Amino acid sequence: MQTSVLILYDPKDPTIIKLADGIAKGVEKHNSTLAILKSIESATTTDLIDSDAIILGSPNWSGITGSFKDWLDNQGDLWEEGCLAGKPGAAFTSGRGRHSGLEITLFQLIHWMLACGMLIVGLPWSNAMKESGSYYGATATAGGNESDLMQAKDLGFRVSQIAARLKIHKPT
After folding, report:
1. How far apart, in Å, are the Cα atoms of 53 and each of 2, 73, 76, 142?
2. What b/e string do you get for 77-105 counting C-beta neighbours within 10 Å, with b at 16 or more?
3. DSSP assignment, residue 134?
4. Which residue has the higher pLDDT, 6 or 142?
5. Residue with more model confidence, 128 or 140
6. Is 117 in contact with 83 (CB distance < 8 Å)?
7. What pTM, to 2 d.p., does this model score?
8. How many angstroms separate the CA atoms of 45 and 11, rounded?
């Protein structure tokens, strides 16, 4: 049984695209899991509904970009319909510095997922976080480094594992 993970991002920053690619590699390390990479320019509401898990990414512009906020706001009443409830979700962001509001951006993405009833997946603490990232989601600054990409792969793998477990136990 194949599991699909939608990696949805605003492509305004080349670093966010690098993180999305890293997350996709992590997702596909898990057997029978398909990573679906989409920018907000090509994604649809159906993409959100059809996926088994969703990982959202936005560059940090003192929070998520205006275009990503607009995209999310125009997806209808998914929170009220409950069609995303119970799906795993995670977040990633990129910015110019480690203390430039990265966690606020992650929280804004997580807030939207929580409003939709999704189950949030973070990253357990590791020594790599001394140099890179947040347990709220994957992060990168100044173009990203190897630790940032490793964290992105770890997040993708973790979400794919949880999505696959939930799919197996989902009532039909």
Report:
1. 12, 19, 18, 28
2. ebbeeebbeebbbbbbbbbeeeeebbbeb
3. B
4. 6
5. 140
6. no
7. 0.94
8. 18
Give CA separation, 59 vs 7, 11, 64, 129, 165, in Å. 14, 8, 6, 19, 30
Supply φ then ψ for residue 106, to 5 degrees.
-60, -45
Nearby residues of 32 by Cβ (< 8 Å), 6 or more positions away? 1, 2, 3, 164
Q: Report the Cα–Cα distance between both ends of the chain, in Å, rounded.
A: 14
Mean pLDDT, range 8-36, rounded to an integer: 96
List, in sequence order, the alpha helices (H) in the chain.
Answer: 14-29, 45-50, 66-73, 78-81, 102-115, 146-168
Q: What confidence tier does 132 reach under pLDDT thresholds 50, 70, 90?
A: low
Structure tokens at 41: 């320019």
Position 136: which residue type?
Y
Q: CA-CA distance, 101 to 99, in Å (whole number)? A: 6
